[in-house]
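pls ignore typos typing on phone
S-adenosylmethionine + seq
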Amino acid sequence: MENISLPNMNAVSDRQNYRLLHGDCVALLAELPAASVDLIFADPPYLLSNGGTTCSHGRRVSVDKGKWDKSAGLGIDHEWNVRWLKACQRVLKPEGTIWVSGTQHVIFSVGFAMQSLGYHLLNTVTWFKPNASPNLACRFFTHSSEFVIWAAPRREKGNLKHTFNYRDMKAENGGKQMRDLWSLAATGKTEKRNGRHPTQKPFALLDRIVRASSKPGDLVLDPFAGSGTTGVAALTNGRRFIGIDCEQEYLEICKKRLAEVSK
Ligand SMILES: C[S@@+](CC[C@H](N)C(=O)[O-])C[C@H]1O[C@@H](n2cnc3c(N)ncnc32)[C@H](O)[C@@H]1O
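k done
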């Protein structure tokens, strides 16, 4: 497998098939070569840490996750979405794609930013969580889904050139075309055995994304790597991985999880 050769950045872990970088993703993405990445999965902060509460395991708990999840106001949050999405667009290969997850709190800004930057939207997958937490306020329907926008970096004339393993997805769906509604359980306890990240995505979601839209040996990047779920899915499926996060404590979880699958 081809090595990941990158400029000497502040890597916290550097292996033949993956690299973890500590810092702000916009700054670090600027140091990567243009058109060098095959697939990006981005799970940006949903900016929900506003002093509210939610329900977890039947108990009312604070929604605050950390400084990184605080909103700076709609306008500034949107400008920031434009900045990191632009940085991702530069490093994507023309035939590469990006997936961005979000709830109603950020996904409309993300979608508008992507359209403004000239991304070509391919799908908006609805990820339905059959085991979603109940709603304590009882003033609206229980939240049980997230959206994942899938896009190519630019609109191309003629045939779309991105990787889509259509047949594999159809086979996985019992021989019928796979639709854009995916029912996958929220992250289970055993997936958190290497430490707790407040917004860890389930392996099943990233596994499907990686298998659907990349090839063995491809370079997968996550600018908000957190506990490293994207990296676990990338390495499990024989892809290479670059993970970026601004919080060292999350990169430590990421390192442990990647070590488990890269033996
Ligand atoms: C929603 S979480 C991602 C969780 C991840 N998908 C997982 O499965 O663990 C967002 C992550 O982005 C990181 N983050 C926030 N702002 C950042 C920035 N400007 N640059 C790099 N990482 C950032 C946070 O530390 C947090 O771990």
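Residues 24-25, 43, 45, 68, 197, 199-201, 224, 226-227, 229, 244-247, 250 surround S-adenosylmethionine (CB under 6 Å). Residues 74-91 form the longest helix (18 residues). more later
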